[in-house]
UniProtKB/TrEMBL annotation:
GO terms (BP aspect): bacterial-type flagellum-dependent swarming motility
Keyword field: Bacterial flagellum, Cell projection, Cilium, Flagellum
Localization annotation: Bacterial flagellum basal body
Family of this protein: Belongs to the flagella basal body rod proteins family.
Pfam families: Flg_bb_rod (PF00460), Flg_bbr_C (PF06429), LlgE_F_G_D1 (PF22692)
Domain of life: Bacteria
InterPro entries reported for this sequence: Flag_bb_rod_N, Flagellar_basal_body_rod_CS, Flagellar_FlgE/F/G, Flg_bb/hook_C_dom, FlgE/F/G-like, LlgE_F_G-like_D1
PANTHER family: FLAGELLAR BASAL-BODY ROD PROTEIN FLGG, FLAGELLAR PROTEIN
Protein name per its UniProtKB record: Flagellar basal-body rod protein FlgG
One annotated Gene Ontology cellular component of this protein: bacterial-type flagellum basal body
Residue ranges annotated for the Flagellar basal body rod protein N-terminal domain, each copy included: 5-35
Flagellar basal-body/hook protein C-terminal domain sequence ranges: 217-260
Domain Flagellar hook protein FlgE/F/G-like D1: 113-174
Amino acid sequence: MLRGFYTAASGMLSQQRAQEALSNNIANANTPGYKADQPTLRAFPEMLMQQMGEKKIPTTHGLNLPVQNPIGSMNSGVYVQEDFPNFKQGDIRETGIGTDLALVNGQLPDETGSLFFTVQNEDGEERFTRNGDFTVDGEGFLTTNQGYYVLDQAGNPIQTNGMEFDVTQEGELQVNGQTIPLGIAYTANANDFAKEGNGLFNGEAGAVPVGATFSVQQGALERSNVNALQSMTQMMESYRMFETNQRVLKAYDESMGKAVSEIGRLG
C-alpha cells in the first residue's frame, strides 16, 4: 500500500518539473536564440517480485525447503532524469539593427553539432550563446545586452568604437579598415552543453572544422525555437497526468483511512 503512495507521488513530482520546464519555454518564446528545454522522464529500476514459501519433503523427520515463485516485475515510479535543450535552428527575423547578428547553421559534419558565438562572462570565462542581440558599451566594445564581451577568433573582446560596422556572411567584422573574425565556435555534440541563464551555455567547443558551413546575417536575429502551441498542448497533457496521479494518491489515502478506522475497530 505504501509503495503505491510513493509511485503516485513520484508521478506528481515528475509532472510538476515538466510543467516548470514547459512554462519556462513559453516565457522565453520571444527570446532571441533561446533553445527549448525538453524534460525526459525515466522509470526507476524494475524490481522482480517473488513469492516466498516452503515445500514439505516427506522424510522421516520432516523437511521444509524454502522455495521462491516468480510473480513478475514491478516498477516503483518515474522521475525527471534531465532537461536537455533542443538545438534545432530557429527562424531568422530581420530587425534592421546593425548590432544584431544571426548565426545560421549550414552543412555540419555531425547531426548533433552546432555553432555558437563566443562571449566572456563576468568571471572572465568563455561561454557560448546563440543570442545575437548585441550592442556596443560605453567603451566601444561589442557586448551582449547583459554586458558580456563578444570575443573574436583569438579570444579577445571586439573593439568597434561605435555602432557603425559591417559583418560579412563569413563572420568577419569590418571596422576602421580592419577585419576581425568573430569567435564562432563549434561542438560536435551540443547535448553536452549546460544552460547557465541569460542565454549562455557552458561546454567544450573548438574551431569550426573544415567542411562545415555557416553564415552570419547582420541586422537579423535568430528567433526562439519554442513552438508555443505545442508547448501549451504538452502542458495540458502534463496537467492531466498530474491530476491522474493525484486521484490515485487520494484513493490510496482513503483506503488507508478505512484500514485504520474500520478494520482496526473490528479487531
